[in-house]
Fold this sequence. Notes:
Layout: H1 3-13, E1 18-19, H2 20-27, H3 31-47, E2 52-57, E3 60-65, H4 83-95, E4 98-99, H5 100-107, H6 111-120, E5 124-129, E6 132-137, H7 139-144, H8 152-170
Antiparallel strand pairs: 1-3, 2-3, 4-6, 5-6
Helix pairs in contact: 1-3, 2-3, 4-6, 4-8
Amino acid sequence: MSVKGAVEAALYSSSENLSVSDIAAKTGLPVEEVRTAVMDLRREYEDRDSAIQIARIGTEYRMMLRPEYSDSTGTFSKPELSGGALRTLTTIAYYQPVLQAELLKLRGPRVYDDVHTLVESDFVSRKRAGNTWELTTTKKFAEYFGIGSTRIKDIKAWIEEKATNLGDESSQPKQE
C-alpha cells in the first residue's frame, strides 16, 4: 500500500475535513509523508482538470466536487435544499450577520421555515438578539460550497463572483 494511496483513501472516505495529523494518526503514517502526499494529490487533481478536488479549508483538507460541476450532478443526487431555502441561505451569507427580522423584510414570511431548515442542516447558526435571531453561516456552509474561508468578506466576495459569472453566462447566446 502506497502512502499516497492511503491518504487518498482517507480523504475519499471521510465525511469530514481532515488535518494532516488526523490522517497520520489514523493511518499510522509519518506526518511529513502524509503532508507530502496531500500536496502531491492536490497538484495531481488540479493538473488533470478533474471534477474532484482536494480542497484546503483552513488547516484541513477534504475531497470534494468542484463547485462548477454541481449542475452536472443534479439528476443523480437529490438536492439538500430547495431553491427557496438556497436563496434564503445566499441572502444570509451575503448580509451576515443579519437579523431574522431584517431577513423577513427581504425574503418574506417563508424565512421562518427556511431558517429552521438551514439551522437543522447546520448551514446557519443563530443567537438571540432581543426579540429576534442574529443569523450567520457556519463552517459547514463554507466547506459544502468549497469557498475555502469562513471570513465574512471572503464569503461575500465569493457570492459576488458567482453572481457576476451567472450574469456573464446569461448574456451569452445559447449554443444549439
